[in-house]
Amino acid sequence: MVFIAVGNIFVSSGFSKALIRKQDCTQTDYSTVFIFNLLISIIVYFIIFAFSGLISDFFNEPELKLMIKVLAFGIIINGISIIQLTQVTRELDFKLLAKISIIASVVSSIVSIFFAYKNFGAWSIIIKTLLDYFITTILLWRWNKWFPSFIFDKNSFKELFGFGSKLLFVSLLDTVYRNIYTLIVGKFFSARELGFYSRADSFKALPSENISAILQNVSYPILSKLQNNSDELLSKFKTILTSTMLITSLLIFGMAACSEAMVLSLIGPEWKPSIVYLQLLCFVGFMYPIHALNLVLLNVLGRSDLFLKLEIIKKIFAIPTIIIGVLFGITPMIIAMIFQSIVSYYINCYYTGKLLNYGILKQIGDLFKPILFSLSIATIVYLVGVFFQLTPWVVFAIQINIGIIFTVLIGEIFRPKDYYFIRGIVLERINIRKN
To answer: Of 24, 222, 377, 400, which residue is most buried, by most CB within 10 angstroms?
Structure first.
């Protein structure tokens, strides 16, 4: 999956963000990018196909060779739908994206579980991944009425590539960075340890990386429309930043607080060693959305060059963390990741402060209350887990309900601005449903 993730980045090539940011995209622009992406996806597929043997040898897993060849075909499937996905995002039709995502996820998951019960092993995961790609592509073509013209315009390509090429390199750096720890654990530790780390990382990704991805997809087109109005752009950015941080910190700190009961009740006592990894990784994931939003702002302002510069600097700081993992083990590596995340946040805020006068001190000032609110709830949830010595699933259920009750109770008593902003959106959606 590490190599597939890198391959998919080449398919996007940064053109998606370039198209979203451009104010007046034409059929020529879309068709040019479509043809280029399709050709790149085919080339990337055959490169991975050719290197499948080396990848298999690297992990000393002979079965990987065929698996990689089959799984890599999903890169071509993704390449076919990249323009449809870009257009739907550009139009802010996130309801359609959610609809497609839910259908694809549900169908592919049901089929995957069936094959898992039929003892297909890891192939059931490959079937799910490919089926998810295929259904998503079919539905995007079905519901987004766009078809390419067989036009490739050099001027359009140069214009879009000038902005997108830097984002391509940034995306490659970020994807390699996010997957490098799995790669290191898989190479230098046992498959068992990799399983514990991967399971903890996937739990952490639910409220952190997924929210970050959603934020980038949603906030980028919204903020791009305000790129010529600095005051309104800053105001909207602050609202998105603080309200997002409240949601993320509630989820991520809450997960850390109830991690023991959650792991034991959801996946069983054999996964107990992953609990410590999960608790530490939550403090890494807590900062992902803040990183994402600050970098989105640079793209909105057309400074993909600064985006690239910052990413290179941050990835250099990641090298010691990787070395610590190889020499001292997984737990010290995750602790180093926490410190590296703090340094990365400072670096991300540097140009945000220069371009919009909204640097790290002002951001921390705005984020202090949402974070304090979330830590208070998480502390209560953790103490509930310590107090109730019951079966894990009962404790987990109690912790979830106590967390929800105290979130609403403290929110209604102290009335923090961000809580009321989110509360208003929720109540509005409920009223719309009722009507």
So the answer is: 377
Amino acid at 114: F
The domain ranges of the chain are 1-166, 189-305+340-435
From CA 80, how far away is CA 15, in angstroms rounded?
A: 14
Token code pair at residue 362: 């002002």
- For helices 27-59 and 154-188, angle between their N-to-C axes, nearest 10 degrees: 20
Q: How far apart are CA 249 and CA 413, in angstroms?
A: 19
Nearest-angstrom CA–CA distance, 384 and 89: 42
103 vs 365: CA distance, rounded Å: 41
* DSSP percent split of the chain into helix, strand, coil, nearest 5: 85, 0, 15
CA gap 171, 77 in Å, rounded: 20
Distance CA 333, CA 326 (A): 8
In the block, tokens 């550009």 appear at 90
Calpha distance 21→108 (Å, rounded): 32
pLDDT given at position 216:
64
Q: Which residues of the chain have pLDDT under 70?
A: 12-14, 163-164, 167, 212-217, 304, 425-426, 428-430, 432-435
Q: How many CB atoms are closer than 10 A to CB 323?
A: 13
Tokens describing residue 107: 């169908």
Distance CA 259, CA 115 (A): 29
Count H helices and E strands in the chain, helices first.
19, 0
